[in-house]
Amino acid sequence: MGSVAEILDARSLYGIPSDLIVAMFDGMGGLVVLDSSKVNQEGEYPVLVWNPGVVDRESMGRLGDDFGSFVFALCQRAVTRWRESD
Q1: 20-71 pLDDT, tens per residue?
Q2: What is the b/e burial string over 24-46, where b = at least 16 CB atoms within 10 angstroms of the residue's CB?
Q3: Whole-angstrom Cα distance, residue 4 to residue 44?
Q4: Looking at residue 2, what is its pLDDT?
Q5: Tens digits of per-residue pLDDT, 4-24?
């Protein structure tokens, strides 16, 4: 996900608001998005989970304050699971 074509498809198929930038699927039917309507002091967007039909941003799950910390946490979990599987 994250390509221009995928984002445009999500907007036309699911009605995702134009200020949400699709980053990936969440694996449970939702989309992991960056909310470009809320920029922090460093110019970063919060990472949220958007499900089709959701219009209230406050009810959306917040996954991280910015994309970098979100991805870093994903990587940490993946490495921990990998180490524990041995």
Answers
A1: 988 888 888 788 999 999 999 999 999 999 988 787 878 889 999 999 999 9
A2: eeeeeebbbbbbeeeeeeeebbb
A3: 19
A4: 56
A5: 877 888 888 888 888 998 888
Q: In this structure, what token pair is assigned to residue 38?
A: 């809320």
Region class of 7: left (phi > 0), else alpha (psi between -120 and 50), else beta: alpha
Domain boundaries, the chain: 4-85
Q: What is the pTM (predicted TM-score) of this model?
A: 0.81
Identify which of 44, 77, 1, 11 has the alpha carbon closest to the alpha carbon of residue 34: 44
DSSP of 15-75: ---TTEEEEEE-SSS-EEEEETTS--TTS---EEEE-TT---GGGSEEEESSHHHHHHHHH
